[in-house]
Amino acid sequence: MVTVIVGAQWGDEGKGKIVDALAPEAHIVARYQGGANAGHTVVCEGKTIVLHLIPSGILHEHVQCVIGNGVVLDPVALRQEIAMLEDMGVRVRGRLFISHKAHVIMPYHKLLDHAREQQQGIGTTGRGIGPAYIDKYSRVGIRVVDLLDRRVLEEKLRHNLAEKNALLAKVYGAEQLDVEAIVAEYLEFDRFIDEFVTDTTTLLHTALREGKRILAEGAQGALLDVDHGTYPFVTSSNPTSGGACTGLGIPPTAVDRIIGLAKAYSTRVGNGPFPTELHGSEGELLRQLGSEYGATTGRPRRCGWLDLVALRYSVMVNGITELALTKLDVLGMLPRIKVCTRYRLGGTVLKSFPVDVPTLDNVEPEYIELESWQCPLEDVTSFDALPRQAQALVELVEEHCGVPVRLLSTGAAREQIIWRQ
Ligand code: IMP
User: Fold this and answer.
1) 99: left (phi over 0), alpha (psi -120 to 50) or beta
2) pLDDT tens, 177-210?
């Protein structure tokens, strides 16, 4: 049985915490796309842990963790993360399995990401994600399996570096890379990564046959999906639930539950359309109250009201079977709450979420205003004990999205979660 966890907005919905909460019931947690552009935060015994590549299931001793073929692997970030976890006393060796089909991020991917960003203005994280996926689809990417054969690695690297160095110098006027140094660095990384590499597709299928429970963890969010998001202001992979199948090598028929995560308001990092964005002091207040700063880059997140048009679209595209609503505690600190229920364009109500940026930039969101509860939720442990205004918000989300909200997060700590049957 596979449960897919997807971000239903523009990422940062709190996947780290929810995966951590669901991990006790799982045997395997498997990450299916993205790279070290993600930042999954877990607050555990008062300590904040940010993971960029390794699923937060690693914090549960009985869980095995997989980095799937759909991920682009940053050797530097991986080593740092393993070292951080081991320093904390977390056993990683023997519990972390990396797909030999995953592509590797190279130094030129990061340089090209920065160089292209100057021209494109997407607001990328600069982690080399886009250029690494470009190479994957151009069929010149270097996969983890290539690291295992020195001759193949050297050949591919030299070929790629000749092209990338010409591109960096002639098109972007950027510094060139030292071929020998990179070959030496990646051969050394090969020795480090060797013990983690396996055929994760077979590992997952064996687990499925044994009736084990797998949590497939996406990074970013559906509205940043390269196919279904606010293109071109998107990431270069498929965070939507279908990405779990291609990014892990599991069939759609194995998936029986798709949990969509949404904040009780909206945030976005980087550029691109954001119909319900708050530009003034209310947005700033939300940012401060919710500590809305990027977990990877530290950039201030753009903040705005909950957008049910976008969420409905996300439920549809992902096939979300249930929602988890996070940061209810933060929203309830505001003196007034608004929720967007539909868009208008030139007086006409739009029937669906627009696919193009100019339309999205020009829609007029229509809001309904709800009463705020303005009281702390930290001691609330059941839905019935929530303030009635918070219950009303949850019911509004269910009514508009057509799926139940089964999980509510009422604070950063592990235990601040309300489950609904
Ligand atoms: P990239 O994934 O670094 O190429 O960046 C593309 C877009 O996705 C930018 O707008 C980034 O800010 C955004 N992005 C990438 N990763 C995350 C994330 O984990 N949370 C939120 N936004 C992200």
Assistant:
1) beta
2) 888 899 889 888 988 999 999 999 999 999 999 9
Give the tens place of pLDDT for each residue, 18-36.
999 999 999 999 999 999 9
Instruction: Over range 215-244, report the average pLDDT.
Output: 98
**Alpha helices (runs of H) in 48-98, residue ranges in sequence order:** 75-87
- Of all protein residues, the one whose alpha carbon is nearest to atom 8 of ligand 1 is 235
User: Where in the sequence of the chain do the CATH 1.10.300.10 domains occur?
Assistant: 104-193
Instruction: Tell which residue, 255, 258, 254, 355, has the closest CA to residue 309.
Output: 355
Q: CATH top-level class for 104-193?
A: mainly alpha
Record the tokens describing residue 328, joined without a space. 């209810």
- The residues lining ligand 1, judged by C-beta closer than 6 Å to any ligand atom, are 10-12, 37-39, 122-125, 127, 129-130, 219-220, 224, 233, 235-236, 269-270
pTM as predicted: 0.96
Q: Is residue 40 flagged as an active site residue?
A: yes
CA distance 373 to 391: 10
Decide the pairing of beta strands 214-217 and 28-31. parallel
Q: What is the CATH number of domain 260-419?
A: 3.90.170.10
Distance CA 327, CA 314 (A): 19
**Residue 344: pLDDT over 90:** yes
